[in-house]
Amino acid sequence: MSAAAVLGIASTALSPGRATAGESTLTADPLGTWQTDGTVWAMAYAKGIVYVGGTFSHIRPPGAAPGTGGLARTNFAAFDAKTGEPLPCAPAFTGAGGTIRAMKASPDGSRIYIGGSFGKADSVGRSNTAALNTDGCTISGDWKPRVSSTIRAIDVTADTVYIGGGFSTVQGQTRTRIAALRPNSELLPFNTTISGSSVPIDTTSGVNAITVAPQLNKVIIGGRFTSANGSVNALAGLDATTGALVDSFAGWIPPASAVKTLANDGTNFYLGAEGYGGGVFDGRAAGRLSDGAQLWKDTCLGATQAVLPYGGVLYSGSHAHDCSNTPGGFADSGNRQHLLAQSISDSTILPWFPDTNDGNGERIGPRALTMADDTLWVGGEFTTVNDTPQQGLTRFAAGTDTKAPQVPVLNGASSPQGQITLNWKAAWDRDNGVLTYNIYRDGKYLTSVNQDSRYWNRPNMSYTDTVQPGAQHRYSIEVSDGTNVSGRNGPVSVTAGN
Ligand SMILES: [Ca+2]
Questions:
Q1: Of 137, 217, 392, 490, whose CB neighbour count within 10 A is largest?
Q2: In the chain, where are the structural domains located?
Q3: Between the CA atoms of 89, 91, 92 and 97, what dihedral angle is there, to the nearest 10 degrees?
Q4: What is the reported pTM?
Q5: Percent of the chain scored above 70 by pLDDT?
């Protein structure tokens, strides 16, 4: 039987080809991962191990309900990066606020620098910062600076450790919110006076994020402040040796907004922001490290807490609910999307939509991102991932894509003489844009139709089959993401016009 076919797709195309020609993302299918019973605020990776810090007292296996199957871990845990299994390395961080807020591996992976609000690391007295020797899981003896208050950001070069937060003295010397030390705790002359606040809700200045470019002798800091050895707003580029202001990033961050996270890939740097009130900046921006030129800025609403560049893609944790002015984005429908992937080259939102819920605490989902052996670890205050219970931690790898799009519902309609029109609404997939719809007639494969879709944009689709006038046929449909095929809907029996 040689039936001519007429194809009709009624809808606006979504930048066709982008999903296949654009940057490839990780999959949106979470790997089995242990959970925490509290918030994960920071993570670091070194030598095959992922270190997790925050405010929690137990970890439990994937699938375990809260309060069951747990191992005691006091605000710190370590996991095998490959298997995700917990490791015995488990110093407790206690005293003061009893929380870890920042972690960073040294470039050689020999140490994990840890900051937060605590008075003891394991059995050793420490003042809001400690370092873990990754060989042997011991607390380093010579990293013991006295820091007057909470540390919220750390970055590390081969010979310098930068710390940022809410403190005003380090080693008894005045250092407001930012300081640099040698790995043996020697305080360096690097000095920047941070003052003012860029957000009305908290009038004290603070540093939330640090990213260092040692090859350019530059440190970029973000937080809530209006001065850093000169007038700035929430973002400043500093000389890595002296602390002098070298980039003021004028106009980057509007009033009533704070920078929450910074990262760099050696060429560009990336930030995420949190605004308070109307007209705020909640999105992300990319800039060139060398001269501070802005590459792009997206104006999604729904504050950003973490960014991580990897493979040409900027991954972020936020609660984005309105990305109507961002390429590939969505209008506000009340939905909060907590994980995003964007093209580093032009900020386009790519088809990668794993999601968490808001969870506990401030109820904003993810707080920290770390890449470990090509697997993205996500930590935060969420209690579900892709609508399944999972608390505090999850992770995503490059493969294998395991989840099929949902089954589209097929409706058949009799058409003019000798024609049968099939109608359905496009499905969507968490990590593929263009999907392939396979149509079967009387149990045999008939044809396929491709369509780009997103969860907020599912076009009505149709296919018209030309058959003998008056003939009755049974049709069914399935959809493939290229790897996984949905179940089949149908058959729907339709009689062609006579
Ligand atoms: Ca998929």
A1: 392
A2: 5-18+405-495, 26-396
A3: -110
A4: 0.94
A5: 96
